[in-house]
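Continuing the series of single-chain predictions for the mutant panel. This is the parent chain; the variants come on the following pages.
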Amino acid sequence: MLLALALGLSMLGLGGSADTLMAAASHVPQRHSPTHGKPRHKAPPPPEVTLTGSLTGPSAQVAMPPVGLSMEYSVMAQDLGAGPCPPPALTTELLQLGSPPLALAGDSQDMTVPSEALSGLPISWQTATLYPLPTSFWSQLHCLLSATKDPLTAGINVKTGELAWAQQMAAGAAGAATNGLDFSLGNEPDLYNLPNYASLAKPLTGEEAAAVQLYLQIATYMQQALGGAPVIGPELARPTHWQHQLPHVIEALHAHTVGVHLYPLSGCVTPRAVTVGGLLSESAADAPHRLAWVVADANAAHLPAIISEANSASCAGEPGTSDSPAAAVWAVRFVLSALKTGFREVRFHFSGGPYDPFLVHGEEVVKRPLESALQAINRWLPVGASLQSVAGVRRLRATRIGTPTGGTTLILDNEHAQAQAVLLRVAGSVQIEALSATGAGVRTTRSSPTHGRIKLVLAGNSVATVSTSP
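Parent structure:
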């Protein structure tokens, strides 16, 4: 007789008390159908998969924390609060996330200037819309990073900046960083407008090459301010815009990491197109595969590639979708897809909108469902781990993780709306963690096998991990 563990209604937050969640294992009696009447078609037996097993053949390596954070300068300034050091809850949150890489980036990157850089009345629309950093910003950030040890990426204003401003920003970032520092030069330069007054509705001949050349001229000039510090780039919004020029850009920037942006959905034009169904679709989960050529270009330059800005939908996301439990399930799928494609890391963006993984309200951190996924991913995929797809697990995506300590984790993903059963062949007790598109948070239980097997039933659109220690 098998031991059945239902990761369905009670396990994934559709009902049941906390006692029910931790006591989801029960013996399942076998029932025999009567032999009279019309013959019934037997349902196929659940697929079986062995928890342990060595990774043979090609596998992806976890060379850096798989999840990082990307924040607008203005969001970080607000979260740091008014005191000399940030709220303790923010420090605790970053530690719980595993002290992930922290980038100051986004649209505000090309609008931010050092404190007191602007004096007097603005002389143009451009200067009137710039964002001067609070005077205490870098010292507050230093206090935060001293406690959390997050590596820092500081974005430099290239679109509207000046060399003197870049020098001040670089000096401030160097004073704040405590566990590594690099820079990015401009945010999404492929979206910078070129002057084309003769025919505004038509692209210039050779526009890609012209845009790249102009960006590289300015970025190379600004690079003087960095003192030889490493650079991530080119932070493209739509990498295909510069696909032919990317190898040249990587070389000219002397980049040490190739960083591009990727959002599977867009709320910029039609927010109604950003739906839970769209977020849970195969297209949204597998979006990183479409940028495999970026990884190839980075590999040719012997550099790592990361998705340096991502989230559920561009333009800050959409309420009801980006802040729903479905975003947590999507995030696990998206990161696994990115790692298997060859990207080393995915940085999730904060812009003060619905997709932010958490919010800081005064002294309190308010977590959204996405936060639980980010915390879990960095725990499930420690640096030094290897991951590989497991074939043949019908109606489920399975990924086996080999950890540096010798343990094994199996990630099972039910992409369908209907529940799906699977038989696990295990030798001993296991821990099971689950994320559902219909209930917030990670649900955890432990189970032991009967006759070497455990039956799991995964609710529709859910992800579960099964892990054992060495």
